[in-house]
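Reply to thread "Modeling small-molecule complexes from scratch"

Following up on the discussion above, here's a worked example others can learn from. I took a protein sequence and the SMILES for magnesium ion and predicted the complex. Inputs first:
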Amino acid sequence: MTTTPLAERTTTVAARATELSKVYGQGETQVVALDRVSVDFRQAEFTAIMGPSGSGKSTLMHCVAGLDSFSSGSVRIGETELGSLKDKQLTKLRRDKIGFIFQAFNLLPTLTALENITLPMDIAGRKPDKDWLHKVIEMVGLADRLSHRPSELSGGQQQRVAVARALASRPDIIFGDEPTGNLDSRSGAEVLGFLRNSVRELGQTVVMVTHDPVAAAYADRVIFLADGRVVDEVHAPTADAVLDRMKRFDAKGRTS
Ligand SMILES: Nc1ncnc2c1ncn2[C@@H]1O[C@H](COP(=O)(O)OP(=O)(O)OP(=O)(O)O)[C@@H](O)[C@H]1O
Ligand SMILES: [Mg+2]
């Protein structure tokens, strides 16, 4: 009986792209950034997206997160088709259901760490769930830094504020575009640990773009993009397994 929630967790889809294409420009200068990509991001799963520069990773993330329009195909967040939404509804869905962690932390310099963490909810006029907020702050280890401004925090601490901000409103899914790209390896490892814990302990769904096989190894699975297509997938990745796949794609790229 106790196994039912786990079974549900593995089958519930937090976000889904179906035959998703994104074309930039037209004619001679046309770039197919995404070429009929179909992928599921399951609830309480940590997915890393990898692939060479220009392979479409950021484009895929932006389209699935409702930050960018797409040319054809469809995107679903939970049960909601993004294509069916008007701008206002899309903005609301982004605000209520999606969390973002960007490489530049996007913290407001005049606000304290705590104010930065609760800012999206303050804007949305929502009261944070106190217990949840406490849990998130404890998890990212910021309890004694809450009244500091970003300039008084280290890069790793600032990124942890950004992680806490994404987690605070309990979004259905969190997207990060190289969220640890600017951090030294120790701070990066910490942030990745928090992301993984949020998936394991809090049932959070996380999708992260990364170039780093070590970072990808924190995920439950890695999907590989090349030329706007999903070309491979690794489950329970190790850094070595990821590196091995990357080498194979490089070799293919050179010979084809
Ligand atoms: N606004 C745009 N106008 C035209 N082409 C674009 C635009 N944004 C992205 N592209 C092109 O789409 C393709 C995919 O870009 P994308 O940013 O998704 O790559 P990426 O995998 O995130 O690369 P990186 O690892 O360098 O961040 C690239 O060929 C890029 O040049
Ligand atoms: Mg990118």
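What I'd highlight from this example: The first strand starts at residue 13 and ends at 24. The CA atoms of residues 30 and 63 lie 18 Å apart. Questions welcome below.
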